[in-house]
Design brief:
- The protein is mostly beta strands.
- The protein has two domains: 342 residues, YVTN repeat-like/Quinoprotein amine dehydrogenase (Methylamine Dehydrogenase, Chain H, 7 Propeller); 372 residues, Methylamine Dehydrogenase, Chain H, CATH 2.130.10.10.
- The chain has one helix and 58 strands.
- The strands form 15 sheets. Strands 28-32-31-30-29 form a five-stranded mixed β-sheet, with no helix packed on it. Strands 1-58-57-56 form a four-stranded antiparallel β-sheet, with no helix packed on it. A four-stranded antiparallel β-sheet has the order 2-3-4-5, with no helix packed on it.
- Belongs to the glycosyl hydrolase 74 family.
- GO terms for molecular function: hydrolase activity, acting on glycosyl bonds.
- Keywords: Carbohydrate metabolism, Glycosidase, Hydrolase, Polysaccharide degradation, Signal.
- It comes from Streptomyces aquilus.
Length: 735
C-alpha cells in the first residue's frame, strides 16, 4: 500500500528532497546495476477509453486517416484496416511526463504523411515547458522542438479548437496559439518558433489566449479567449503579417469565448461556436454564428438558446462546443452543446446552413456493450457530456464522431452510435491488485472511474464500474491476504464512500456506516489477512490529514485510532492477522500494531523523511518482511517487522514496488520496481530478492509518469501490471 504524500503535482515538481540517511546501514551483497534489458511485450489492459478525448481530426486528403488527442493520455492515429487507434507518443519518458497531454494537432493537406503535435499538460510554474513534435510518417517517428513557453492540455479550455495550424499558403509555415504567450510562428516546419509580429491579442497570465486557429481559404482566423464579451475575440490575417479584428463579430456573454470553428469551402461560410467560459466545466451560456467570408456578413444560427426551464423546473444552462462541416454537401454541418447537465448534451445537425436543426440525440440508439462502464451504474447510458471534440468524415457524410469525458462515440448512419474507442486507453490508474485466486485477473482503481473487476485483460470489464456504490475516483483498494474473496474499496461517491465484497470484487455492499470524515476526505484502507479488521485513513484532496478509524464488523461501526500517524497508509501483514504497519513520513519512523490495529508503537527511526514520495509494501506470504521505496533515496528492507531497516544497494531511486510469482527454482517472489538502478528511471524485475535487476520496458514503452502502482501477477511468472497517469494500465509479459 502507498503512504499518503504530496499531490502528484508537488511530487513531480521535485518540490522537496528527502533527509540524509546516515542512520541506515546498507545490506551486504546488495543489488547491482541492471545489465541489459529483458524483452517484454507490452499492451494495455482494456478498459475502453475512460478519459477526455479533446480533439478528433480527419485528414482532408486521405480516406480513412484520422487522429485523436487527449488531455493527459497522448495522441492516436486511426488504423482504418484494423478498426482501432494506435498510440503515437508512448516513447516519452519519465522526465517528459508533462508532454503526455496534447494541446493541439495539425496535418498538412498537401503532404498527407506530415503530422504535428503541440504537447504540454500544465502551464503551471511547477510544470516543464511545452514542445512541438513533427513527423513525416504519420507519427511513426518524430523530431522534437522544445518551446520556451508552457501549454495546458489538461487545463480549462482543453476542449477548444486546434491551436496549431499549417499555413495553407506555405507548408513550411506553422502557427501555434498559446494560452499565456500570444501567437507563435514557425517558418521552418516547426523546428524553430518566434512570436508572431502584429498579432493584436494581449497575453494574460491568467487568461486563455488563443483558443483556435482555422484557415478559410487563404485567410487565417484566430479565436481569442480573453475578451470580456465586448472587445474583439476573433482576429484574421490575409497576408500572414497583418492581423485585424474581424468586423461585425458577435458580442455579449453568449459570445465571450470562441470555442471551435469550421469552414465550408462550398458556401464560403465560417461557422463558430461560442460560450461564456472556456469549458469543459463552467459554461452556462453560448451561441453559434456563421460568417460569410465573401462579404463579411454574420448570421446567428444557434440551434437552441440556453437558459430555458426544464420540465423539472431546472435551468437549461449550457454552452456550445464542437462544430464540423460536411466536405461533400454544401451547408451541412453539426454542432454540439457542452456542459448541459439538466437535459444532457446533444449533437445538432443542419442541412441548410444552420437555418434549421435536428437533434441527433433524440433518435439515437446507443450500444455500449463493448464498454459497459459507460452505463455508470444505471440501466442505460447517456448520450454524453463534455462534447467539444466533434468531427465529420470528409469521405462519408454519415460518419460522425464526438468525444466525451470518457469515450469517443461514432455513427455510420446518424442513428446508431457506439464507442469508436478501440486502442485509446486514457486513465489515471492508481491502485492495482492481482488476486492469487478467483476469476479476476486484476482489480483496478482509477481516477474518475472508480474500481473495475477485470475477468479478461483484452476486453472492457463486463460488469463495468463497481457499483453499490459507484465511485468517481478510487482512493483505497485492499484484499485480505489469507481470504482473497474479501475485498474492500474506498473513494469519492455520492451514496457512500466505502464498500466490501465477499466474492473477490464481483459484487459489493456499502459500509453500513462511515465516519463523518469519509464524505470529504476518503483515503486509503487496509484489511487484516483474515478479513476481520478494517483500518481506514482520511485525507482531504488538499492534503489535510485526519485520524484513522478501525472497524471489526464490515464497516457497521468505527472507532478512532489515536496512535496511528495521521496521513500514513496502513499496511496489513499478509501472514499475521494481528499486525498492521504504517510509515510516518514526517518523522521517518516505522510504526507497528500487534493488536489488530487498536494501538501503534514506534519501531525503526532515522529513516528518510520529508515531503517526498514513499511506499511501504509487505512481501506476500511472509510476516514482517517489509520493503520501503523512497523517491530519491532508493529502496530499504526490514525482515523483522520494522524493527530495523537496511538500504538495498544498487537502487538509486524507487517510486513504487510490487511482487509476483517467483521464477522457476526461486524461493522468493519476483520483485518489480519503478525506479532507477542506474541513471535511468525504468521498470525493473528482480528474481533474487533485489540482488540484481533487469530492465523490462524499453525506450518505445515509457508512458511518461509511471510512479503510482505496480503489481506482479501471483499466478503467472513474469507478468506485471503498471499504473500510468494517462495511458491507463499497461501489462507486460516476457517474450
Amino acid at each position: 500500500m502507498r503512504t499518503t504524500r504530496l499531490s502528484r503535482r508537488a511530487v513531480l515538481s521535485g518540490a522537496a528532497a528527502a533527509a540524509a540517511l546516515t542512520a541506515v546501514p546498507s545490506l551486504q551483497g546488495g543489488a547491482q546495476a541492471a545489465e541489459g534489458v529483458t524483452t517484454y511485450r507490452w499492451r494495455n489492459v482494456v478498459q475502453g477509453g475512460t478519459g477526455f478525448v479533446t480533439g478528433v481530426l480527419f485528414h482532408p486528403s486521405v480516406r480513412g486517416l484520422a487522429y485523436a488527442r487527449t488531455d493527459i493520455g497522448g495522441a492516436y492515429r486511426w488504423d482504418d484496416s484494423a478498426g482501432r487507434w494506435t498510440p503515437l507518443i508512448d516513447h516519452l519518458g519519465w522526465d517528459d511526463w508533462n508532454l503526455l497531454g496534447v494541446e493541439a494537432m495539425a496535418v498538412d493537406p498537401a503532404h498527407p504523411n506530415r503530422l504535428y503535435l503541440a504537447l504540454g499538460t500544465y502551464a503551471q510554474s511547477w510544470a516543464s515547458n511545452g514542445a512541438v513534435l513533427r513527423s513525416d510518417d504519420r507519427g511513426a517517428t518524430w523530431r522534437r522542438t522544445d518551446l520556451t513557453v508552457k501549454l495546458g492540455a489538461n487545463e480549462d479550455g482543453r476542449g477548444a479548437g486546434e491551436r496549431l495550424l499549417v499555413d495553407p499558403r506555405d507548408s513550411d509555415t506553422l502557427w501555434l496559439g498559446t494560452r499565456h504567450d500570444g501567437l507563435l510562428k514557425s517558418t521552418d516546419r516547426g523546428a524553430t518558433w518566434a512570436a508572431a509580429t502584429g498579432f493584436p491579442g494581449t497575453p494574460s497570465a491568467s487568461g486563455q489566449g488563443v483558443t483556435l486557429l482555422v484557415a478559410a481559404g487563404r485567410t487565417l482566423y484566430a479565436g481569442w479567449g480573453d475578451s470580456d464579451g465586448t472587445a474583439a475575440s476573433l482576429f484574421r490575417t490575409v497576408d500572414g503579417v497583418t492581423w485585424e479584428a474581424v468586423p461585425g463579430q458577435p458580442a455579449g456573454v453568449a459570445a465571450k469565448v470562441p470555442i471551435r470553428a469550421a469552414y465550408d469551402r462550398h458556401t464560403r461560410e465560417l461557422y463558430l461556436t461560442y460560450a461564456n467560459a472556456p469549458g469543459p466545466n463552467g459554461q452556462s451560456d453560448g451561441s453559434v454564428h456563421a460568417l460569410c467570408t465573401a462579404d463579411g456578413k454574420w448570421r446567428e444560427v444557434t440551434p437552441v438558446q440556453p437558459g430555458g426551464t426544464t420540465d423539472d423546473g431546472d435551468t437549461d444552462s449550457f454552452g456550445y462546443g464542437g462544430v464540423a462541416v460536411d466536405a461533400r454537401r454544401p451547408g451541412t454541418l453539426v454542432v454540439s452543446t457542452n456542459n448541459r447537465w439538466s437535459l444532457v448534451d446533444t449533437v445538432f445537425r443542419s442541412t441548410d446552413g444552420g437555418r434549421s436543426w435536428t437533434s441527433l440525440k433524440d433518435s439515437a440508439v446507443l450500444d455500449v456493450s463493448e464498454t459497459p462502464y459507460l452505463k455508470w451504474g444505471a440501466d442505460a447510458p447517456k448520450f454524453g457530456w463534455w462534447i467539444q471534440a466533434l468531427a465529420l468524415d470528409p469521405y462519408d457524410s454519415r460518419h460522425v464522431v464526438y468525444g466525451t469525458g470518457a469515450t469517443l462515440y461514432g455513427t455510420r448512419d446518424l442513428k446508431h452510435w457506439a464507442p469508436q474507442i478501440r486502442g485509446i486507453e486514457e486513465a489515471s490508474a492508481r491502485l492495482l491488485i492481482s488476486p492469487p485466486a478467483g476469476k479476476a485477473q486484476l482489480l483496478s482503481g482509477c481516477g474518475d472511474i472508480g474500481v473495475m473487476y477485470h475477468e479478461k485483460l483484452t476486453a472492457s470489464p463486463s460488469r463495468g464500474m463497481a457499483s453499490n456504490p459507484v465511485f468517481g475516483t478510487a482512493t483505497g483498494l485492499a484484499q485480505a491476504a489469507a481470504k482473497p474473496a474479501y475485498v474492500v474499496r474506498t473513494g469519492w461517491g455520492d451514496h457512500g464512500n466505502g464498500a466490501y465484497s465477499n466474492d473477490g470484487g464481483q459484487t459489493w455492499a456499502p459500509f453500513a456506516a462511515q465516519p463523518a470524515l469519509a464524505k470529504d476526505a476518503p483515503g486509503p484502507i487496509a484489511v487484516t489477512a483474515d478479513g476481520s479488521v478494517l483500518l481506514w485513513v482520511f485525507v482531504h484532496w488538499d492534503g489535510t490529514t485526519y485520524p484513522a478509524y478501525r472497524s471489526t464488523d464490515n464497516g457497521a461501526t468505527w472507532t478512532e485510532v489515536p496512535s496511528f500517524p495521521k496521513g500514513a497508509t496502513p499496511v496489513a501483514d499478509p501472514a499475521d492477522p494481528t499486525r498492521f504497519y504504517a510509515y510516518d513520513t514526517a518523522t521517518g519512523t516505522l510504526l507497528a500494531s500487534t493488536d489488530s490495529g487498536r494501538t501503534f508503537t514506534a519501531r525503526a527511526a532515522g529513516l528518510p523523511s520529508g515531503d517526498t514520495q514513499f511506499e511501504l509494501v509487505a512481501a506476500p506470504g511472509r510476516s514482517g518482511d517489509l520493503w520501503l521505496s523512497v523517491k530519491e533515496n532508493g529502496l530499504y528492507r526490514s525482515t523483522d517487522g520494522g524493527i530495523g531497516f537496511a538500504k538495498v544497494a544498487g537502487c538509486r531511486a524507487a517510486y513504487t514496488l510490487g511482487f509476483g510469482k517467483a521464477a522457476d527454482g526461486a524461493a522468493y517472489p519476483a520483485v518489480y520496481l519503478v525506479g532507477a538502478t542506474d541513471s535511468v528511471n525504468a521498470v525493473h524485475r528482480s528474481d533474487d530478492e533485489a540482488k540484481s535487476w533487469v530492465r523490462i520496458n524499453d525506450d518505445r514503452h515509457q508512458w511518461g509518469w509511471t510512479g503510482e502502482a505496480i503489481a506482479g501477477d501471483p499466478r503467472v511468472y513474469g507478468r506485471v501490471y503498471l499504473a500510468t497517469n494517462g495511458r491507463g494500465i499497461q501489462y507486460g509479459e516476457p517474450v
